[in-house]
Automatic annotation (TrEMBL):
Domain of life of the organism encoding this protein: Bacteria
UniProt-listed InterPro entries: DUF4331
Signal sequence residues: 1-23
UniProt name for this protein: DUF4331 family protein
Annotated organism of origin: Formosa undariae
Keywords: Signal
Length: 186
């Protein structure tokens, strides 16, 4: 009986301890003059195309890659991207091997090393829809599988089947039909 009494006291004290503080009053004030952008800011990460930076930039070069402007990334990082691609993907084992876009390792990694998401202003916007490739991105695009296919799938997406699909074919919840389009958290 005493043990139950002590447990109830402990639970009561913990409830009071966590719920009686005044640090969660949300007394946030907004400066009427607007945000203050003075100071020094540094870029911490780039991710124009998901997973590209993660996979192809060597750990010792991550910080340098993340602060390099995209127009300089290709020249600075393409050799590293190519070496990492050729070490990673059996689809580029032979001289002259290409991916389904017809790009050899040097050309493909030159495209990837400039880590920006290109967007078609006058055509279909998609990461890949069977015809259009890397012309933008829709929420429904299976970006990681497309990247895996381009890296491991070879000339016709049939090589290295086990490596060419993340097997995640849909979201946990459907996208909304109106803004903000992303499903609410469950």
């Amino acid at each position: 009986m005493k043990t139950l009494k002590y447990m109830l006291v402990a639970v009561g004290v913990s409830i009071l301890s966590f719920n009686c503080s005044n640090d969660d009053d949300n007394n946030m004030t907004i400066d009427p003059t607007g945000p203050d952008f003075s100071g020094t800011y540094t870029q911490a990460d780039q991710m124009g195309r998901p997973a590209v930076n993660t996979v192809f930039v060597s750990p010792s070069a991550k910080d340098q890659f993340n602060v390099t402007i995209p127009s300089s990334q290709g020249a600075a990082f393409q050799p590293m991207f190519q070496a990492n691609l050729e070490a990673l993907s059996p689809a580029y084992n032979e001289e002259g091997d290409t991916n389904a876009l017809g790009l050899d390792a040097a050309t493909f990694t030159g495209l990837l090393a400039t880590d920006v998401l290109t967007v078609s202003l006058d055509g279909e916007t998609t990461f890949y829809d069977g015809t259009n490739v890397l012309t933008g991105r829709k929420l429904t695009d299976d970006v990681i599988t497309v990247e895996l296919l381009l890296i491991f799938g070879g000339e016709d997406f049939t090589e290295n089947g086990a490596l060419s699909n993340d097997n995640v074919d849909m979201n946990d919840k459907e996208f909304l039909s109106s803004f903000p389009y992303l499903a609410s958290a469950w």
